[in-house]
Amino acid sequence: MLTLTSPVETPLHRLPAGAKLAALAAFTVVLFWLKSPVALALALGGVVALHVPWGAAFTTHAARMLRPLWPFVAVVAAWHLWIGEAAAGAAVILRMVTAVAAANLVTMTTRLSDMITVLERLAAPLAPLLPPRRLALAFALVIRFIPTLAARMVQITEAWRARSPRRPGWRVLVPATLAALDDADQAAEALRARGGAE
C-alpha cells in the first residue's frame, strides 16, 4: 500500500493535524456557501497559491492527484452545456476542484498516523458502540488502498489492451473486483498476524 503524504517537506507538514483538518472542514463549508463562479475561482486561486511556494515537484504531485477528478469534471461540464446553464456548471466544477485540491493539500502535508490520532479522539464518544481504534483503522485502510486500487485498475486495463483490440470498458470490472478482494484478504491476514485492530 502507498502513502499519499508528499516527500517534499514544507512548513505545512509541521502544523498540527487537528488544526489542518478543522481548517479544511471550515473551508469546505464556506465553499458551499459561495455561489458566484468568480468567488469560487478566487478560492481555487488561493488553494493553488498554497501549493506553488513549495516547488515544482510538490505542485506537480498535487496536480497528478487531481487526475481521477477530470472524468467527473467532463461529465458535469457536458451536462450543464447541454441544458444551457454554463455559469451554474462552472460554479459546480470550481467548487468540486477546489474542495478536492484543498483536501489533497491536507493529505499531502499530514502523516496518516496523525490523522488517525485525531479521528480516534473525535470518535471517542462512540466508544460504547464502536471502538475508536477500529474506526480509525478503517479510515486509514480506505486512504491507503485508494492509490493501490487505482494503480491495479491501470495495470488490468493495460493488460487487456495488450491482448485485445477492443476497448476494455466494463470487462475489467470483474478482474479489478477480484484483485481488490485479494488485496483486502492479504491486508486482513497481515492485521491478524499483528494482533488485529485492538
Automatic annotation (TrEMBL):
Cellular location(s): Membrane
Protein name as annotated: ABC transporter permease
Family the UniProt entry places it in: Belongs to the CbiQ family.
TM helices/strands, residue ranges: 12-33, 39-57, 69-94
Primary localization class, coarse: membrane
Keywords for this protein: Membrane, Transmembrane, Transmembrane helix
This protein's GO CC annotations: plasma membrane
Source organism (scientific name): Fuscovulum blasticum DSM 2131
Record-linked Pfam families: CbiQ
Topology term for the membrane: Multi-pass membrane protein
